[in-house]
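Hey,

The postdoc asked me to send both predictions to you directly instead of through the lab channel. I've kept everything plain text so nothing gets mangled by the mail client. Protein one:
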Amino acid sequence: MSILDGFKEVGESVGGKLTMTIMLESVRFSKNVSSVLGFPEYVKVLVNYDEKKFAIQKCDEKDEHALRFATKRPGEASAVTLRNIDLLVATQKFFEFPELDDPTRIAFYALDGIYYSDDQAIVFDVETAKSGTVGKRGPKLGSHQKRPRKKKGDAEAAEGAEA
């Protein structure tokens, strides 16, 4: 028996920011969101249109509105990107995405969340959203084009010329 039996911890222990990033084609949750929720396989995302808030809550696959979430094993936190159409429609009602002149950039809105352990949920307030742009991920524009390869004989000749 411990002297601390019956005591409850006060406050929240969260190691880092809990961020929801909304873009035109996806919604991304920071790796801390997955970690704080206990690396759930499924979540449901809720919206309160009156208060302009979103929430993400752990659930199981039998929940009618379950979205597949974590793909890694516990302890292997990574950011999670969702491209669910219903989620995109619900989140984008609150934001206007500017048309960008630079095709290598993407507009986004980032919301910081607050974890509520009693409900195992994180709440994100639209009013606190910060907007910005970020470079697109993946290959750079035009990098997929084939470049002429040097022939083996050309490479050997170049080496001989340098010597």
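Protein two:
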Amino acid sequence: MLPLLPRFWQLADSAERMDATEVFSQYFRHFIQYPALALQAGVGGTLYALLTVLPDGRVGGISITRRDLGAGAPPVKAVMALDAELQRVAWQLRFKPALPRTDTDSTAIPASTDIAAEITDITDQTESVESNDGIEVTDVTDAGTRSAVDTVTIFYRFGP
């Protein structure tokens, strides 16, 4: 069974939040693989995906929102392979359940964080590649349940 990842964006203590962010980054680095089709085509770059994290910790939706793949027109199948790999790992993410909101203000101020970590240990067969992964979080309150439904933008850099 996969571990429940901390909802680091909800942690008030900055040291605790950074530790929890590192747990997320390690998990992501461990499971993502550079698609062979993209590697063979020399396609790399940064992909951004918007995740909806439900109150129970499951990912409820994923959409690729942006691709920064460099100049030129990369082969469509290679781009689709990158998209599919990011989505495959993102669908596996499980976060700890959200705690019910105790505030009574229905106009909660969104929380936001932007985190990037250098990653140099991703490999595909015998080739070494450098990657970056990151997270940007916007906290959205569901007024009916007073639980957090978070939208999280993750990004990952695949580098040939």
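Summary for protein two, as requested: The two ends are 31 Å apart (CA to CA).

Thanks,
C.
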